[in-house]
Amino acid sequence: MPETFNLSWFFGFMCAMPSSLISEELVFATGDWRPYIFEESGDVVPETPGFSVEIVNKVFEKMGHSITYVSAPFARQIKMAEQGTVDALVGLYQDEAPSLVFPAEPIGTTQNCFFVKSDNSWKYEKIEDLSEIVLGTILGYTYGEIDTFIENKPENIFSLSGSETVMMERLVGLLDMGRVDTFVQDKLITEFFLSNFETNEKLENVGCLAKVPFYVGFSPKGQFSKEFAMEFDKILNEMRRSGELDEILAKYSVLDWER
């Protein structure tokens, strides 16, 4: 009797759920953000998509969904998600697109740091230090505590836009050409680039901002975005308890940000 009851309840529950939450191919926007997200030629790399993408893929696989990823410059990704052209955006801070629908659980944390050429004695200790230099940034990115300075001091800022896949190369190039004195970028991303790509420059980390969680953000136009966000939290916490999350992170030599 208990087995029959549970089975009947399950089928009743599934029938009551909207079909969009049961099985549907979803379209998510993202861009190259290694080691968080690996993208090449407009597609997420199947074998090593990055730990953030692997987390999202596993969560939605458990929901019964498959995901198609589209790549675009970051500012365009936000517009696509806001307008409902895509179902979600993978890899952003909540402040970068507050109109999106976010789960409570992040898919990692980042820490932006300042990098200079080895012969530069400048160091970052406080926001006022930025008035002494020209800073390289990426258009559309949020940097937290220095955002007000970036907005109010355009003469001190050199912002790049375009494909995420060459952004690190371009930032390093700005340093090499003397167009900027320093650039601000995530610590893991910069260290990954410097250890995997040839560059003539030896760069030094001269100060960091606070760690910030980043998320998958669902389109406010999506009919089931709130339900997706709540289910995402539930499944991710189950993966943390079961050890599945640690298995994904270990492939990229990353530790759970909650520990």
From TrEMBL:
InterPro entries: Solute-binding_3/MltF_N. Residues 30-252 form the Solute-binding protein family 3/N-terminal domain. Keywords: Signal. It comes from the Bacteria. The keyword Nucleotidyltransferase does not apply. This is Transporter substrate-binding domain-containing protein. It comes from Parasedimentitalea maritima.
